[in-house]
Amino acid sequence: MISSIIFIVFLITGSAFFYINARKIRRNILLGKDVTINDNASERFKTMLLVAFGQKKMFTRPIPALLHLFLYAAFVITQIELLEIIVDGVTGQHRVFRASLGGFYTFIVSFIEILSVLAFVGTLAFLARRNLLKVPRLVKNELNGWPKLDANIILIMEIVLICFIFMMNGADEVLYTRGQSHAENIGDNSLSFTVSSYLGPLIYGSMPTPGLHVIERIGWWGHILMVFGFLNYLPFSKHLHILLAFPNTYYSNLKAKGQFHNLFEVTDVVKPNFDSSYQSVLDPNAVIKFGAKDVTDLTWKQLLDAYSCTECGRCTSSCPQNMTGKALSPRKIMMDTRDRLVEVGKNIDKNGGTFVDDGKSLLGDYIKTEEIWACNTCNACVQECPVNIDPLSIILSLRQQLVLEQSSAPNELNGMFSNLENNGAPWQFSPSDRANWINEN
Amino acid sequence: MTSIKVPTMQEKIANGETPDILFWVGCSGSFDDRAKKITKAIVRILNHVGANFAVLGVEESCTGDPAKRSGNEFLFQMQAMQNITILNGYDVKKIVTGCPHCFNTIKNEYPELGGKYEVIHHTELVQQLINEGKLKVQGGEFKGKKIVFHDPCYLGRANDVYEAPRDVISKLDTELVEMKRSKANGLCCGAGGAQMFKEAEKGTKEVNVERAEEALSHNPDVIAVGCPFCNTMMTDGVKHFNQEDKTKVLDVAELIANANDL
Questions:
Q1: How many domains does the structure of chain A reveal?
Q2: Could you tell me if A347 and A402 lie in one domain?
Q3: N or C: which end of chain A has fewer CB within 10 A?
Q4: Do B16 and B117 share a domain, yes or no?
Q5: Residue B1 falls inside a structural domain
């Protein structure tokens, strides 16, 4: 009875706290400029199914993909067991589904156990890749401090979680064989779960029954508290990708990667020069800002991208400029965008719902022009991202700001612009010489 | 080598003819001495198959690609609409480009501004001509030679055209070798995004050197490209390693035209 009340309190506060923080994230994302993405729902759904659910793009790098698949599958399947834990917790029963589901129950829990063992191996491998093998993309400068700690916290939480599962199932197995488990006996003498029916007796076989009850409860409560903890850690962590990968891939760009967004504000001004019948549709007195200086100048999709990034660094490791020692790192672009957005969100919370100018901006305080001007617009980062994030679109928005609002392109580019304007070519050739090649030998 | 015939759109219209296809030469193909050779190779192929084509000549202007990629949307749209006005004036339906940047911009970014055409890259045209039996190719001087193909970003990743250039090269009985970073994982030559027109930012290496190093690690006779800017970057990269006597950088169009004495 008391444990049920404690459980319900945890369940409600855990869910409410998550709800509050999830709403803040939603609000922050919607600080971005509006853009309508509602075309081609079936293609979008298919993309989400393949890229997020099916992890299609992960498999260009098979080893981490396989390790990640272990964790991902274990996580997804464990949700089934979580249902039972919640019912048990609220009603004060134990393994409520076992008696009615019978063999299917044994199958599901065994499946979870096998995946948990694989996930355990995967997690250790991931810790090793980060901390011992120091895989280059996982130890770059932009990960120093919190990002590195964040990654290790997640992995360690996963290991602890898996340990709790095996404490719970292992101790319960030994109790069950002694007829002491709180699970209903259905005329057998083992819970028959693939891993814990061996692991349980091996570790806990010689332990007295009262101690086993304590261990089993530590495992059970530990498991569910880790789940609540994890859920509430997500909004503050790169690990949020486990949720946002789905909407982010749904709303991903379905057009050719080479097609850059058309700025209609510009078209509306330029078009009358070429088409006298064209009527401008935008208010000529409205203040138009070109490109992005701060996060609120980006679209909600670009901000969703930032929250969906799990900092894996595939983008940065494939960036031609980054691999040749330049300051540009597509991952850093995404991390900076999120960090600044979180800062803006906190500012709004602190100031009763409105943003008070803090004299800072994404461009300049977080991302330097040196990074922006290094980009080759080659789309390697976009191609690589396992959740279809588009760092290039943010880079271009920042470039538009630098050129159209601040007139601060590098000198050589200004030269190229004036050549284009005057000669119709990026170099200083006369347009009248354009066809000379025809008669040259 | 016979002399080339390059009618302009203006001449064609004046003669009451309607070209089937417009050859969009591009700035590099018009002004850069090395790229002009690629342009002429494309023309030799067009002449050889008796294609009814034309160029815009002095009426052509930059597509605006480098302005767009550097964030100068105004300049881009001015260039785009100027070109679209001319193209629509001639009622152009189909365009072949000698440059993946022109290809991408006209194909993907002109429609929203009122310019809707069927646009193909010259490697796709050559592939079509071969498949239709209009162009018969032999390996010639490239037979048995080792060739690596460098994917231009704006042909490959940007537009998912990976097979046309490879298909064409394979017709030459060559040994086509793939770099580790190829197709969707291809590495940029370093020119795109208007980097061609500025110094690189501070770093430890030039991108074209990184890419040329990878290509040269296969000891190829030829590094084949499909973009005049990649051509410049890879040629410079090969020179950086003093390998220009051993490894040539050639456009796919040049491979076809040279191998068949077009």
A1: 2
A2: yes
A3: C
A4: yes
A5: no
Contact B31 A432 (CB under 8 A): no
Phi, psi of A432 (to 5 degrees): -70, -15
Q: Are residues A196 and A262 in the same domain?
A: no
The answer to whether B139 faces chain A, any CB pair under 8 Å, is no
Measured between CA atoms, the residue of chain A closest to residue B8 is: A435
Do A284 and A406 lie in a common domain? Answer: yes
The answer as to whether B218 is a domain residue is yes
ipTM: 0.96
Tell me: do B86 and B116 sit in the same domain.
Answer: yes
Q: Cα separation of B227 and B153, whole Å?
A: 9
Q: What are the CB-based long-range contacts (under 8 Å, 24+) for A408-412?
A: A408/A369, A409/A373, A409/B70, A409/B71, A409/B72, A410/A373, A410/B198, A410/B199, A412/B197, A412/B198, A412/B199
Domain that holds residue A355: 253-431
Q: What is the Cα–Cα distance from A27 to A48, expressed in whole angstroms?
A: 23
Q: Are residues A339 and A380 in the same domain?
A: yes
B247 and B228 belong to one structural domain? yes
Reported as type and span, the H/E element at residue A133 is: none
Instruction: Please tell me whether residues A205 and A307 are part of one structural domain.
Output: no
- Residue of A395, A398, A434, A436 best to disrupt the B interface, most CBs of B under 10 A: A434
Cα separations in angstroms, A166 against A114, A116, A153, A216: 11, 9, 20, 9
Contacts of A327 in chain B (CB under 8 A): 201-203
What strands lie across the sheet with B94-97, from one edge to the other? B53-54, B21-24, B94-97, B118-121
Whether B13 and B123 share a structural domain: yes
Contact B172, B143 (CB under 8 A): yes
Tens of pLDDT, residues A148-207 = 999 999 999 999 999 999 999 999 999 999 999 999 998 899 999 999 999 999 999 999
Sequence-separated (6 or more) residues with CB below 8 Å from residue A23: none
Residues of A in contact with B57 (CB under 8 A): 434-435, 438
- Residue A339 reports pLDDT greater than 80: yes
A117 and A189 housed in the same domain: yes
Q: What is the pTM of this model?
A: 0.96
Please indicate whether, in this complex, the C-beta atoms of B73 and A266 are within 8 angstroms of each other: yes
Measured between alpha carbons, how far is A266 from A76 in angstroms, rounded to an integer? 46
Chain A residue numbers touching B199 (CB-CB < 8 A):
410, 412
Q: Are residues B37 and B114 in the same domain?
A: yes
Among B127, B156, B179, the domain-final residue is: B127
**What residues in B contact A320, CB-CB < 8 Å?**
187-188, 190, 207, 210-211
User: What tokens appear for B4 in the block?
Assistant: 């080339």
Q: Which tens digit of pLDDT belongs to each residue from B8-38?
A: 999 999 999 999 999 999 999 999 999 999 9
Query: Are B195 and A376 an interchain contact pair (Cβ–Cβ within 8 Å)?
Result: yes
CATH number at residue B21: 3.40.50.1860
Q: B94-128 pLDDT, tens per residue?
A: 999 999 999 999 999 999 999 999 999 999 999 99
B107 shares its domain with B163: no
pLDDT at A80: 86
Q: Which residues of A touch B5 (CB under 8 A)?
A: none
Contact criterion met (CB below 8 Å) for A291 and A402? yes
Q: Considering only CA atoms, which of A241, A93, A115 is closest in space to residue A166? A: A115
Closest CA–CA distance from residue A392 to any residue of chain B (Å): 10
pLDDT band of residue A286 (cuts 50, 70, 90) is: confident
Same domain, A372 and A304: yes
Could you report the per-residue pLDDT of A40-85, keeping only the tens digit for each?
A: 999 999 999 999 999 999 999 999 999 999 999 999 898 888 999 9
Q: Is pLDDT at B2 greater than 80 in this prediction?
A: no
Number of structural domains in chain B: 2
How crowded is residue B199: how many other Cβ atoms within 10 Å of its Cβ? 10
A39 located within any domain = no
pLDDT of residue B1 exceeding 60: no
